[in-house]
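Re: weekly structure request thread

Next one in the queue (243 aa):
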Amino acid sequence: MTLSCANSFSSTELVNSFDFEQANYQLRSMPALQRIEWCFEYLPGNHILTSSFGAQSAVSLHLLTRVDPNISVVLIDTGYLFKETYQFIDQLTEQLNLNLIVFRSSISPAWQEARYGELWQQGVSGIEQYNRLNKVEPLQGALSQLQAGTWFAGLRRQQSSTRQHIELIRQQESRFKIHPIADWTTKDMHRYLTEHRLPYHPLWEKGYVSIGDVHTTRPISGELAEEDTRFFGLKRECGIHEL
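Done, posted below.
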């Protein structure tokens, strides 16, 4: 199958016959913005971007909206984000005129605690159940409801040992998963934020380098590596990017 005829095939047909090795080889030589443009030209819609509105999330949000100002930006709201995160979401939504779409668990945080207790305090199994209820299942609902054919995410190899081998493009079930800044360093991120006058998350200056829920996020310190600042060091990934 040639890339030029991609639009004549369904997402499932295209992803099952797609040459991911060749595509990754081709994308490696491109700057991030050109990678995104390539994906919009050759890969099926609907295109979506997931964002946690974490420390440097403004980079991906700015890059994607330069190519498609109306791209669906999906936020999974657990109900336990930092106050500063909710304020940051409002700030960037206004600044970048985001088409923000919020998804949540069908069970409210209060009802979850009444039913299960504080799952994040119940070891790895409790954390995994919490993440499934509040992150994985809402994301699955978002991908289905939006009929996403191509999913962009801002993962980078430098972020943790669990991400150091991620590709620029891969298959995610019946859709394409794109990591256009996978090879960017922290310096690259800072340079882009500075050049485009984009803000860091307000907790960045307080030592928070990976920002999730209030009860399972810690600032970095001499005793903690970056990937240990989430989930008490018991886990790094919440499950969203393990689909």
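DSSP finds eight helices and six strands in the chain. The beta strands are 47-50, 72-76, 99-103, 150-152, 169-172, 175-178.
Next request, please.
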